[in-house]
Amino acid sequence: MKISEYEAKAIFSKYGIPTPAGGLATSPAQAQDIAMQLITPVAVKAQVLIAGRGRAGGILFAQSPAEAELNARKLLGAEIKGVKVQSVLVEKEIPKKKELYFGITIDRSNRSYVAIASSEGGVEIEEIAAATPEKIVKVFIDPLYGFRSYHAIRMAKKLGYTGSQMQSLATIFLNQYKIAMDYDAELVEMNPLIEKPDGKFVAADTRLIIDDSALYRHPEFKKKLIEEETALTPQELEAQKSGLAYVKLEGDIGVIGNGAGLVMATLDAIQLYGGKPANFLDVGGGASADRMAAALNLVLSDPKVKVVFINILGGITRCDEIAKGILDARSRIGFLKPIVIRLVGTNEEEGRRILTDAGIHVLDSMEEAAKRAVEIAETRG
Asked: What is the value of pTM for the model shown?
């Protein structure tokens, strides 16, 4: 679960990490009032749970309360990457000497958390790693011993800091690790973490993603997930209600599969043939006809989707149940967009028969199906 920036910053502040003074506004007038209290200049930041918000025009700067009101008027009600802006965070603009990055996430290949820091902040960490890998500092965190003060000090030193600044930065790193542990975080980061001209540090932007499997330990956020529809795209909200694992992407080929690994392989296959996936959707093992119908309805509701690629490798999942779900979805909503289906595994013959009798062609090669989906998307484009 992604936590809104204003909520994440409240958590960071509670753990002793400096953040800019600010307030949440749901109207232009509120934004103007907050800017007057803070004394300009200020940043007006759309509260949407997407990456790359700044580049998409979701962060505007204001030199006066009137300009803050105007910027809030521009953002509120607008859509950023398909998500409607319902609120903005108005906060004091921080003077900067340097921008840093610090994050803690899960490295699944090493079965541990990893702390990542960089002397180049303000851009996506993937871009930093690709362009200047020498500026990335990593510490793999032993799950038994955790992230200790000497780890934090070592990382601060490698970023070029000494003395009181090094100690201050190390303390911030340690406190962020505590947040990660206390909130069962998949990701917790500061980007940028600003070094001010006076040598102090402020977390100008923060992100916190809580492991969905741990939400029972955080009931306040689990309740909020359903109540605050504005925090999610319509498809993400519907996925949460239906219990489907769904992630919105930027492409035009809808993807449905059973099993996270298979879905990831499907995304790779689509990109291999020059296509762009519109989503990640895992119906899970043993998916029923109702679950399949819900998944198909969800993907087809995305206006950017030109074609849907259904990739099923039946183990626990029965191919005949998948076929029934596809026909059920067709009877409910119709297929106004083409569907490419790859169906192999348990009860494969029966599943193929059901679909073939209904006039729906089925493939048995993932590569062939991926290539076909890309061709259809290009034709419809």
From this structure: 0.67
